[in-house]
Amino acid sequence: MKLFALGSALMLTPAGFALAQQPAAGGPPSFGPPLPAHIRGSTAITAVFGDGQKLTAIAIGYDAEIDSTALSTTAFSVKDRTITRVYANTTAAPADHGRNGRFVIVELSPDDTNAATFASDGRDITRRDATEIVTQTGNVRTVGGADYAPSDVVVPITSVSNTVVDDFDQMVLSDPATGNVVEYNLYVPKNYDPSKSYPLVLFMHDAGVTSPVAETTLKQGLGAVVWAEPEEQAKHEAFVLAPQFSVQVAGDNSDDTSWADTIVNLLADVSNRYSIDQNRLYTTGQSGGAMLSLAIMIKHPDLFAAAFIVAGQWDPAKVAPLAKTRQWIVVSEGDAKAYPTENEMTAVYETLGTRVAKASWSGLSTPAEFATQVRAMESEKAPINYTVLEKGTVVPTGQSDDPGSNHINTWRIAYRVEGIRDWLFQQVKPQ
């Protein structure tokens, strides 16, 4: 886990927790009123959801082990946020169960109006720093039996831990063949062994998060980070490659693009540096990223073992090479562009003799219902699966149920479907 310090009044302990620097004797405090001597600052903890990154917890450091059983949600206050759990831990990280330790974890509701630290509505990007006002409003008891009294002094946020996002490395490729320069994020499996061969998932973002900031694609939703989550890696140990584009790389005109060649060259570069299974390369993307996946597959239909295409489209007159590929397509019925175009595209595949399994799902399905629906489609054993999310089940309450909202909410739902992710890893390129 990487911790990013905010400001200069920090130092990192061997445990990786940033402490609030105490003022020198007689000198001014670093963060307004001096902290109680037993508090050592706090770490803001974020997590990524289908609709972006949110601040979901704050870990407060103490100078002694805290009795987890003596804590309650009334022991702390976070201005304008809803506290859902409070417990102690041995590390500055959330846990399923509390345990005595020097950190108190204050979990916050991701449904709070101001929980987001990163969000995109398909047009504008909203970023904000973690500046929550945290105070200890009740007694905190140590394992040794000492009581730390309440205080109205604000506990400063002295570091930020971005769950899963911090596990990616940021790199740059200057492609001499095309002249394109692309920053990218790469997740390397925790226990990488060069003697083994690993699958790789390529994720490409939508045009709405075009940005020069490399980590943008990791924070916009689940498309990149879901493959690197510990639970997913435990099932499917894999590399995850997520380019960040600072210009739009695919448009609605379905034109050939040099970025398709650059991404192929990027895959080759990563494969030359790591042990990547060339028979288990997978591509996925949403909107513009799905379109770039399609553009690459049209030029190189044998490159990927399979593709997960989310809210994507391409000129049906140009998609004949895609009939030879394996795809799982997800689109929303209320998407005025991608839905009718994908209908035409899948019709082309069928005309060329490719079987396409088709189904309509509710976007409000539970994980168990999604699992059942995935199994039903898999039972058809078709090389291409085409899932349509029913209109009226895609757009969250409070948003206008228009074509644009149906489009951008497709990926909020699609990447949460575990069975489709499992299907992807089951595909192996024919020898």
What is the fold's blueprint, element by element?
Layout: E1 3-5, E2 10-12, E3 18-20, E4 39-49, E5 52-66, E6 76-78, E7 83-89, E8 101-108, E9 116-120, E10 125-127, E11 134-136, E12 140-141, E13 147-148, E14 157-162, E15 169-174, E16 181-187, E17 198-204, H1 216-219, H2 222-225, H3 230-235, E18 239-244, H4 258-273, E19 276-286, H5 288-299, E20 306-310, E21 327-332, H6 338-351, E22 356-361, H7 367-378, E23 384-389, H8 403-414, H9 418-426
| DSSP E strands, number | 23
Radius of gyration: 24 Å
Strand content: 25-35%
CATH architecture identity of the largest domain: 3-Layer(aba) Sandwich
Q: Name the CATH superfamily assignment of the largest domain.
A: Alpha/Beta hydrolase fold, catalytic domain
CATH topology of the largest domain: Rossmann fold
Q: What count of domains describes the coordinates? A: 2
Helix content: 10-25%
Global mean pLDDT: 91
Distance between the termini: 38 Å
Counting helices, strands and paired strands, the structural category is alpha/beta
* Shape estimate: elongated
Major β-sheet profile? 9 strands, mixed
| CATH top level assignment of the largest domain | Alpha Beta
Q: Give the helix tally.
A: 9
Major beta sheet, strand line-up: 15-16-18-17-19-20-21-23-22
Low-confidence stretches: 1-31
